[in-house]
Amino acid sequence: MRFIPFIVFLVTGVFLYENYLVESIDENYYSEVETINSTQSENILNYENIKIGYTKQQLINLLGNPDRIDESEYDFKWYVYNNDLDNFFMVAIQDDEVVGMYSNSLNSIELNEIQLNKTKDEIRKTYKPLEYKIKNNTKYLIDSNEEYDIIEVDNKYITLFYDVHNDNKICSYQIIKEKTEKNLKDMYPKESDYDLAKSFELQMIDLINSIRSKNGLNQLYLSENATLSSRNHSEDMMVNNFFDHTNEKGENPSDRMKYQNINYKTAGENIAAGQTSAIFAHEALMNSLSHRKNILGNYNYIGTGVVFGGYYNTYYTQNFYS
Questions:
Q1: CA torsion sign, 156 to 40 to 281 to 115?
Q2: Nearest alpha carbon to residue 272 among 67, 2, 11, 98
Q3: Which of 120, 125, 47, 121 is nearest to 90 (CA)?
Q4: Which residue among 47, 163, 183, 268 is least crowded, i.e. fewest CB within 10 A of its CB?
Q5: Average predicted confidence (pLDDT) for the chain
Q6: Which pLDDT band holds residue 204 (cuts at 50, 70, 90)?
């Protein structure tokens, strides 16, 4: 059996700049994916009682229709509930059954005594984190940089993400049914999975806007041009095998935004590589103070670009500006 590292967390210093050009904005950043009319606002807290094994119809009866349906790195779809950014969550549906969930806002009955805001030390007094995952006869060592734990409880894989800048308290979690986790054959998405890349891009915006809302900040609107700038840079890093804000032609984020006719006064960029999903990438960026500063920065617009393949398997770029 081969042993290789699991999840490389690569994040680099924030890039800030000022300038004035021209802009193109799309304030409805869900327009290009499947969107469903939501009737669930008054039922949102029912999420806490959703159990693995519930049917899709039971979920909808309790919560209403999702705001969006996304692809995932697994074989399930994420039912995304983002109407209330202070109570953001996603529920995983496969073959009309609930097989997982994610939230940075609400607790879940599937967590048992584990709760958001419990500390890493409290968790490790009771649970021993997994040291590896096995996929296709390959053992992937889990190197979390002390930023998350994966534990196996009651036939579930639970990932607990810690905020290293807030006393290592649990800031979010992901729960995956054991069978679903074990059926995942590869750690990283296929290079040609464009629908999944688009879902990751939108999930990153949801996660950013959710944490901004919790901090009393404005929502960021999607800029189609900043999305193109971000995607192009992620593609450039993947194809030309580098990881930096400045590419091999010496072009920096300011140059790339200029090429996309973006008008800005202030702007910033985050990049990351190697994370298996938008959730893991977001939590890694939040645990870096410089990237956290961008995520919580004084901006109005955002573009995200995700590309699969290359040396690090996944590349993420976020462009912020106002």
A1: negative
A2: 11
A3: 47
A4: 183
A5: 89
A6: very high
